[in-house]
Amino acid sequence: MAAIARSKRTSGSSHSTPLTRRLAHGDLIFRVLTMLAALIIFLTMVAIGLELWQTSALSRAKFGLEFLVSTNWDPVAQDFGALTFLYGTLQTSALALLFAVPVGIGIAIFLAELAPSWLSEPLGFLVELLAAVPSVIFGLWGLFVFIPTVVKPAGQALNSALGFIPLFEGPVFGPSRLAASVILAIMILPTISAVSRDVLRAIPNAQREASLALGSTRWEMISQVLIPYGLSGILGAVILGLGRALGETIAVTMVIGNNLDLSASLLHPGYTMASLIANEFAEATYDLYLQALIEIGLVLFVVSLLLNLIARFLVYRVARKTPTEARV
Amino acid sequence: MNAVIARAQPRLRARSYRRRKITNGVMLFLTGVATILAIIPLVWIIVYVAQEGIRFLTPSFFTELPTPVGVPGGGIANALVGSAITVGIGALIAIPVSIIAALYVSDNPNTPLGVGLRFATDVLAGIPSIVMGLFAYTVIVLPQKHFSALSGGFALAIIMTPIVLRTTEEMLKLVPRNWREGSLALGAPEWKTAVQVLLPATLSGVVTGIMLGISRVAGEAAPMIFTAFGNPFYSTDANQPVATLPHTIFVYAISPYKDLHDKAWTTALVLIALALGLNIAARGITRWRTRKLGLR
What we know:
The complex is a heterodimer.
Chain A: H1 2-13, H2 19-25, H3 27-55, H4 57-63, H5 66-69, E1 73-74, E2 79-80, H6 83-114, H7 117-129, H8 135-162, H9 177-202, H10 205-213, H11 218-229, H12 231-247, H13 250-255, H14 273-280, H15 287-321, H16 324-327
Antiparallel strand pairs in A: 1-2
Chain B: H1 2-14, H2 17-54, H3 59-63, H4 77-107, H5 112-126, H6 129-144, H7 149-174, H8 177-185, H9 190-217, H10 245-254, H11 258-295
Helix pairs in contact in B: 2-11, 4-5, 4-7, 4-9, 5-7, 6-7, 7-9, 8-9, 9-11, 10-11
C-alpha cells in the first residue's frame, strides 16, 4: 500500500507531468514553499557565522590568531585578546559539569529505575520545570539569596581548609567563578537528567532481568549493565548540558563578578566570553572595541558548532562500538 | 547482551556479599538525595520570588510606568508591552517558517536539504542566545543606527525556530502513514493533505511547541541588551527601543538601589508566573494528547 502511494506521489510530481497541470494542482508551489522555508533556516545558520566573521574583520586583521592566546584586554590601549575569557568559560563549564553530571545521572537513575510511577512522574515534572525558569531569575536569586547564604560561607570554609592550593586562594569574594559554576550546574541539571532518564527508560527489560537473574544487586545491574548500555545517550546528554553551560549569559553575568582576574582561584570573580559581551557591549565606544567583542561572539559560535559536530561523532562512534546483539 | 554481563561477572564474585549489599543501599540512597538536591533550588526560587515579589504586587504595578529611584509607586507597563511586542514579532516570524520547514523535513528527511536543515536546527538550538543578539545587532541595529523592538523580535525568532520546528517534526512523525496515503489516494494534492490532514492532526503538538517556544523566549534577557535595549517610556513602535520583562529585571538587579531591587523581585514574580504557567499548560496539552492517542 505504501509502495502504491509512493509511486502515485512521485508520478504526480515527476517531470512527465505538464508544468501547467502541476501548477494548477498547487503542489509545485507547495514544494517550492517548503523548500524555501527549509533553505531559510539553513541559510540563517550560515549567515550567523558569515556575519560575525565579516563584522569582526578589523579585529581579526589587527590581532590575527594572537587574539586566541593573548590575555590582554585593554580598551584604553586598544589591545584585545580572548584567552582570559576562553579560560573563564572553560573553567566554569567544566566545574559545572563536575557538579551536575553525577547528580543528573543520579536523578535519572532514581526516576527511571527506583521510584514508583506515582512518585517519579511528579518528581520528573518538577526537575524539568527547573529548565523553564528564566535565566535572569536564576541570576537574581543567585546574586541576592544563594551567594550570601551558601556560596560565600562554603568559599570561606574551602579557603580556610585548602587555601594553600591556588584554586582556593583568598581573599574570598561572593560573586565568583565558584558561584557561577554552581548556578550553571543547577541550570544544566534538568537537561542532563531528563535526557539520561529517557535513555535509561529505553533500555529493554531483558537486560535488567538477565543481570538480576545472574545474582547482581540493583546497583550492580545499574552501574555495570544499564549505564554501559546507555553510554552514548548519556554522553549526548552531557554534551547538551555543556553546550548550555558554555553559552549561558545573563545568570553568569550577574553572579561571576565580571573582573579581569588572572589568578587560578575559584573564589575570585572572573569573566566568561558570554558575560564579557553582555557586560561591555554597551561601553564599546569605538569600532575596534566593538569588533573585538563580536569576534568573541564568533569564537562562541564556532565552539558551539564544533561541540555539536563532536557530539554527533561521539554518539555515532559509541553506537557503532556497542555490539549489535546488545542493542537488541 | 551476553558480552556486557560476562564482563561484569568476575567482579561480582570477587566482592563479599555483605559489602555488595551495603554499596547497593548507599548508592540507591544517594540517587534519591540527588533528586532532592535538584528540587531544593526550584522550590527555593519559587517560594523566595513569590515572597519578595508579592509585597509590591498591586494592580497599578501592571499599568504604571517606572518611577525614578526613590519615588514610590511605579510599575512595568512599558516592559509588559515591550515583551509582548518583541515576543509577538519573534513568533510571527518563527511560527510559519518552522512549521512549513517541518513539513519539508518530515517528508524528505534524507535529501541533502533535509539533512542540512536538521543539522542547522541542532546548531541553532545550541548557539548561545547572546550570539543571536549579536547577529540581530549586526544585521538590523548597525545598518539602522538605532536599537529597536524589531531587532529584539528578530533575535527571539531565531531562538524560537528550532523549538517549534522540532516539536512539529516529532508530531508529524506520529501521524499514521495511512492517513497521508488515504488523503493522497483520494486525489488531494500534497498541499491539501498537509493543510487539511497533517496539520489538524498535529495541531495540539504544534500549539505545545509554540507555547514552549514562547515561554523560553519571553525569559531571554541576554539578546535584549543590544537589540531592544530598554526604554523607560511607553512605546508600541516596532522601530523604537522597548523595555522587556527579563531585561528590566537584569537592569534593576545590577543597580545599586534597594528600591529597584524590590521592583526586580516583583517583575521576576510576573515573569516566572508567565514562563512556568505557559510551560505547565503546554505539558498539560501534551499529556491530554497522548492519552487521547492511547485510547484510539
